[in-house]
């Protein structure tokens, strides 16, 4: 059995520790924040200041890999997640009646919940594992190195104590200090591929009234204007978030932090207006997040691993702008792979680096491509000129065959070129267009003049 030190107690770190512990490995998890998600989810979510985790209060939709990994590795944890209010939403629920089942359809499920609920159930499960020790309020300050080429990490220094390990897992997030430690120790530098995302997010949380309506019925989750996107995130325990996305350079961005302005703007989009018309109770101020990038940090280069005894996972490995919701899904997939192959990874990390490049890196590339397109569109405020691409998106909400392909891409089950590139999907989109000869790409949100009229001068 391996001795593993995990740096970071977020979703990826907790998932890694849990899956390793359930296989009998000895794990010590180090998290510098002394506070942990507990029984009072609303207090933890709405009143816990977490400057190192700005995404914690932003809305989440957890994609299929989160559900499938938890159901495979820890079904009791998944049951606890549902018991605490998380809800399943199958992509075919849009149609009311599901089409005839095909293999894989059972995985096209989103978990609707706040991040704090997932953190709470993972924390509770990790604390129950007899071979896992969780050290909260304990900051890792350095790595210990042994001999070898490449150099081998043999443990971590946490506060004043040196902790030995066969493998160290860096799950400390997008601001990980580990790359700098490696360079300072004389290792070759990690290979970093970084792309700035010029996109800003503003959200506000609401709670549905106990004596009021709880569902606006068949309403899409998102709407769009040429310069902005709007979305609603139904969540656990009658909470939901309204989210606005626009370019970081948009001159109206600052004014949207005013709750009245934010709500007026959100009401100009059909998707979010339908939920605000339920007369929910606001739970927060307007919460902003920007300054994000897509960053891949590889601890291997063309000459092989730059260090042994150490791998990275979660945002330390791949940090993505949250528009596609990849973060937790990719993090738990990496955690599962580490737990399954820990002995081989501890002996030689090259197989892990090869796996991440093959299994996770393509989704990083998809996010980079999507963000470039979104940033350009939001900045230029220009509609798409690709009629068939627009038809593909619209057709999914009328045709289960196309919806299935959309869901397979969304849930990281197939790349877009495979899911959409079948003769069947092509026939269905062609028939959909033939029945709508006047179809053209268009937005359902406000015009720029309408938007500007909502914003105080």
Summarize the structure.
Residues 437-457 are annotated as: Disordered. It holds the Pfam family DAO. The protein has helices spanning 11-21, 41-47, 64-73, 75-83, 115-128, 178-184, 259-266, 270-276, 327-340, 342-347, 350-359, 361-380, 387-395, 400-410, 416-419, 423-434, 448-454; strands at 3-7, 26-31, 87-90, 109-112, 132-136, 140-146, 152-158, 161-164, 167-170, 191-197, 199-207, 222-224, 228-234, 239-247, 281-282, 287-289, 292-298, 300-301, 304-305, 310-312, 318-319.
Report what the structure shows:
The protein is α+β, with helices and mostly antiparallel strands and 457 residues long. The protein is built from 17 helices and 21 strands. Strands 11, 12, 13, 14, 15 and 16 form a 6-stranded antiparallel β-sheet that branches. It has a 5-stranded parallel β-sheet with strand order 5-2-1-9-20. A hairpin with a 4-residue loop joins strand 13 (228-234) and strand 14 (239-247). Helix 13 packs across helix 16 (423-434). It is globular and about 70 Å long. The mean pLDDT is 94. Residues 3-37 form the FAD dependent oxidoreductase domain.
Task: Summarize the helices and strands and which ones pair or pack.
Layout: E1 3-7, H1 11-21, E2 26-31, H2 41-47, H3 64-73, H4 75-83, E3 87-90, E4 109-112, H5 115-128, E5 132-136, E6 140-146, E7 152-158, E8 161-164, E9 167-170, H6 178-184, E10 191-197, E11 199-207, E12 222-224, E13 228-234, E14 239-247, H7 259-266, H8 270-276, E15 281-282, E16 287-289, E17 292-298, E18 300-301, E19 304-305, E20 310-312, E21 318-319, H9 327-340, H10 342-347, H11 350-359, H12 361-380, H13 387-395, H14 400-410, H15 416-419, H16 423-434, H17 448-454
Parallel strand pairs: 1-2, 1-9, 2-5, 9-20
Antiparallel strand pairs: 3-4, 6-7, 7-8, 10-17, 11-14, 11-15, 11-16, 12-13, 13-14, 17-21, 18-19
Helix pairs in contact: 1-5, 1-9, 3-4, 3-9, 4-5, 13-16
